[in-house]
Structure formats: C-alpha cells, structure tokens
C-alpha cells in the first residue's frame, strides 16, 4: 500500500509539472509579441495567438479552422509559408503581406511525429511593416536627392552653355551630351582634334558638370607652351634645394594645386618622354614625388588630356609611351573641325559679333552674303580663326552691316557655293527665332537698297513701319 501511495504521489507531481509547463507555454503563446500559428499536415490552422490576430487584423474565428490555401484564395494573405513547408518538409522563410496591409517576415518550421511523419507546422510571423516604410522612405529620399543633384547639374550645364558654349550642330550636341554623362564618373578622357576646334570647352564642361569636382580647383596647362626645364617643376613642384634658385620653402606643382579637382593637359603629345613616366604613375597610383624630394605626395585629381596630333602615330614613332597612351585613351572624344559642322558657323559668328558689339560699343550685324561666304570657307584654324576674323571685320568695317566685301582678300572662298541654311536650334523660343529672322531680313534689305525708302519698298512695308522695326532691333541707319 505504501508503495502504491508513493507511485500516486509521483504521478501527481509529474502531472503538476506538466500542467505548470503547459501554463508557461500557454502564457508565452498568449503574450508573445510575434504572431504564432499552428497548422496541421493538411494545411488547416489549428490554433493562433492574439498577436497573429492583430497582425492580420481579423478575429480568430474568421481563419482558425480554415485551410491556408483557401485563405490565400480569399486574399487574407498573399502566400502561405505552411504550404511550402508541407510540400518540402523543410523550414521555409518568406515575406508575407496580409489583406490589412501588414507586411510580415514569416518562418514555418515542420514538426514530425515519432514515425517521422509531418504532423504540424509551427508558423512565426514578425511585423516588418515599419521597416518596409522606412526602406521606402529612404528610397524616396535617395531618389529625390538624385533628382536634385541631376537638376543642379542641368543648371550648371545650362549656365555653361549660356555663357561659354555656342553650338547648333548635332555632332557637337552629341559630344556635349557625352561629356555631361562622363562628368559624373572619374574615368580618364582624351580629347582629340585639330587645333582650335574647342577641345578646351569640352574639358571645361567635364569639370563644371561634375557633381564631385565642380567646386574644386580646375587647372589648365599647355604642355607645348612651357620649356622642358620648367615643365617638370610646374607639374610636380619641387622641394627646398632641388636646384639653384629654388624657393627656400619649395613649391607645390599643379597636380597638388588641383587636388580634389581636375587638370586639363593640352597638347599632351608634347610632354617629354621622361615626364610621361611620372604622369603614368599619377594615373596608376595617384601619387608622385616632388623634384628633389623623397616624400610621396598623394593626390585625388581627374586628368583630362587633349592632343591635336595622332598619339598612336607618336607611339609607333617611339615618341610617346604605349602604356601611357592606353591609360589616357580610356574614353576618346574626337572634336570635329568647324568645316564638318557648318551649322555652328552661323551661331558662332553671330555670338561673337554680339560679343564684340558689347566690348567695343558697336552695332554690327552680318549680312546674308557674308554668312554664305563664311559657311563656304574651310576654316583651317577652326573656331579660333573664326573669332579672330569676326573681330577683325568688326573693328575695320566702316558701316554697321558686315557684307561679303569685308571678307579678307587673303581668304579664298569657293565661287557659286551652295549653302544649306537649315540648322538645329537649341534653347531658343519660336519668338526669338522669328525675331532673329526678321532682323536679318531687314539688314539684308538695307544692305541691298542703301536707303530706308527703297528698303521699305522692297519689303512691302511703309517707311514708318521699317523705322519702328529698326528701333526695335537696334539697327542704325547707314
């Protein structure tokens, strides 16, 4: 009897421990912050805690006892982790969205019986809605910041075009568009083309449109304009005692001064062979040493090079290092000569006429005949020659209308040349285009007829109307 009593007490103790353990598990199940569901091997939800009800925002009786596949079809949630666990027999983690809009990180774990058969799936769901919202907010902020940066870059480029760049041809518009895109990265650019085509203008755009370097130094150097003995010190600087006459405190070179910004090396083909090695080191390792110094100087500088010579031919001739050529020629941009982009001739000529009018207080204009002559000319000196010629005609002509007779005698223009007067207009309104056209027609009429009465008659308008339009466009009487 005593033994039986002890067994009963032992069973009672074990039962008490089991009940206590069960209460603990029920408490965890009840008050756990994460959603918990128990699903049987057929996909039916057996039980669910209050947290899961809060996540789904529906009462337990609306989904407990139902099959998860039916709940997916009804739209209670977009997919089921239980179905995947039952199918694979392995733990599965998915992102799940409930009809309430709640997003959950849900993990399903299989529970097997003693025979190794799947008996239950324990599902745990963690609310990540706020994390998704934060991620989306961050994404929008980054998108907005990117848009602001792009807009700022566009404004810089627009200002650059307004002040410095005059272009109408598709060839040059494409080049400027490429330069604008390349400005966002630090790849090395090699500008090639004849002298005076505008390579420096493209280089300046590459710097000014850069979101990282535009506010930093921009230094330009013509490698062919400085004697070889001075060029090394100019580029790389020197330390105290490097040579006779050196400053006591030494002097930084242009690469140090351009740190963080850009350096434009024009006529790179004129760089002496021994200095090409030092330039290669900067391109490869972003470091160099001053003349007479042993200290390694680290620099963060973008190198933009230009040449009016064929560097590949210089490499073949042994005058330019092949490894440096490949380092510089990452993105080559060929700036076409002015004769191959005739649409730019008129725009450039009119731009510089206005420039010299402001500079000297003139009211000069180009006649149609002069424009034809300028478009037929080959411009071997390119834009630089055009600027020179426009200034020469502006300061030497007696009248305000620059006719074809103003074209210098030493310049050969083909006779009876036909010019395509169509050109691309960018950044001008229709009113401005019409105004410029009307202004040019009046100039031409005055040029041909020599007085306002005949000019008005040829235009089919009264003298009063002609006088008013001349005042409007600032056209002086001849």
Q: Can you walk me through this structure?
A:
The protein has 478 residues and is of the alpha/beta class. Helices cover 48% and strands 15% of the residues. It has 18 helices and 16 strands. The strands form five sheets. A five-stranded antiparallel beta sheet has the order 2-1-5-4-3, sandwiched between helices. It has a five-stranded parallel beta sheet with strand order 7-10-13-6-14. It has a two-stranded antiparallel ribbon with strand order 8-9. β3 (92-97) and β4 (103-112) form a beta hairpin. α10 crosses α12 and α16 (430-449) packs across α17. It is elongated, with a radius of gyration of 40 Å.
**Overall body shape:** elongated
Which CATH class of the largest domain is shown? Answer: Alpha Beta
How big a fraction of the residues is strand?
Answer: 15-25%
Count of runs of 4 or more consecutive helical residues:
18
What percentage of residues falls in helices of 4 or more residues? 40-55%
Distance between termini? 141 Å
Spans with pLDDT under 50 lasting ≥5 residues? 418-427
Draw up the topology in text.
Blueprint: H1 2-31, E1 35-40, E2 45-48, H2 50-56, H3 68-74, H4 81-88, E3 92-97, E4 103-112, E5 118-127, H5 129-163, H6 170-182, E6 189-192, H7 199-208, E7 218-222, H8 228-236, E8 237-238, E9 251-252, H9 254-257, E10 262-266, H10 273-285, E11 287-289, E12 296-298, E13 302-307, H11 311-316, H12 322-328, E14 331-334, H13 343-360, E15 365-366, H14 368-376, H15 382-396, E16 401-402, H16 430-449, H17 452-459, H18 463-473
Parallel strand pairs: 6-13, 6-14, 7-10, 10-13, 15-16
Antiparallel strand pairs: 1-2, 1-5, 3-4, 4-5, 8-9, 11-12
């Amino acid at each position: 009897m005593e033994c039986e009593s002890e067994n009963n007490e032992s069973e009672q103790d074990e039962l008490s421990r089991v009940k206590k353990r069960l209460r603990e598990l029920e408490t965890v199940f009840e008050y756990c912050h994460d959603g918990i569901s128990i699903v049987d091997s057929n996909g039916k939800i057996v039980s669910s805690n209050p947290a899961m009800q809060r996540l789904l925002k529906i009462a337990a009786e609306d989904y407990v006892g139902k099959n998860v596949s039916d709940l997916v079809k009804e739209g209670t949630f977009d997919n089921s982790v239980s179905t995947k666990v039952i199918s694979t027999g392995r733990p599965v983690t998915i992102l799940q969205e409930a009809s309430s809009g709640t997003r959950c990180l849900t993990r399903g774990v299989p529970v097997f019986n003693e025979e190794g058969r799947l008996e239950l799936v324990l599902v745990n769901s963690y609310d990540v809605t706020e994390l998704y919202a934060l991620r989306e907010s961050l994404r929008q902020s980054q998108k907005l910041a990117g848009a602001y940066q792009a807009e700022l870059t566009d404004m810089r480029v627009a200002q650059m075009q307004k002040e410095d760049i005059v272009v109408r041809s598709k060839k040059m518009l494409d080049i400027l568009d490429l330069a604008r895109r390349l400005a966002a990265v630090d790849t090395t650019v090699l500008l090639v083309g004849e002298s005076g085509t505008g390579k420096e203008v493209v280089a300046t755009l590459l710097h000014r449109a850069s979101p990282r370097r535009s506010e930093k130094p921009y230094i330009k150097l013509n490698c062919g304009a400085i004697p070889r003995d001075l060029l090394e010190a100019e580029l790389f600087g020197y330390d105290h005692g490097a040579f006779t006459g050196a400053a006591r405190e030494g002097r930084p070179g242009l690469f140090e001064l351009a740190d963080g910004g850009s350096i434009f090396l024009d006529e790179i083909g004129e760089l002496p062979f021994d200095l090409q090695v030092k330039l290669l080191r900067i391109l490869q390792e972003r470091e160099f040493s001053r003349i007479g110094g042993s200290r390694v100087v680290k620099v963060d500088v973008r190198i933009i090079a230009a040449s009016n010579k064929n560097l590949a031919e210089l490499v073949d001739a042994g005058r330019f290092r092949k490894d440096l050529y490949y380092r510089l020629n990452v993105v080559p941009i060929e700036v076409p000569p002015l004769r191959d982009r005739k649409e730019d001739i008129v725009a450039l000529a009119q731009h510089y006429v206005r420039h010299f009018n402001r500079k000297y207080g003139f009211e000069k204009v180009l006649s149609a005949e002069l424009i034809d002559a300028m478009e037929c000319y080959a411009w071997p000196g390119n834009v630089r020659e055009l600027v020179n010629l426009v200034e020469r005609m502006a300061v030497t002509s007696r009248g305000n209308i620059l006719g074809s007779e103003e074209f210098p005698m030493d310049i050969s223009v083909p006779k009876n040349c036909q010019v395509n007067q169509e050109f691309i207009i960018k950044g001008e309104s229709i009113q401005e285009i019409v105004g410029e056209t009307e202004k040019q027609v009046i100039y031409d009429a005055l040029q041909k007829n020599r007085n306002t009465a005949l000019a008005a008659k040829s235009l089919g308008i009264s003298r009063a109307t002609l006088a008013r339009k001349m005042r409007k466009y600032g056209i002086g009487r001849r």
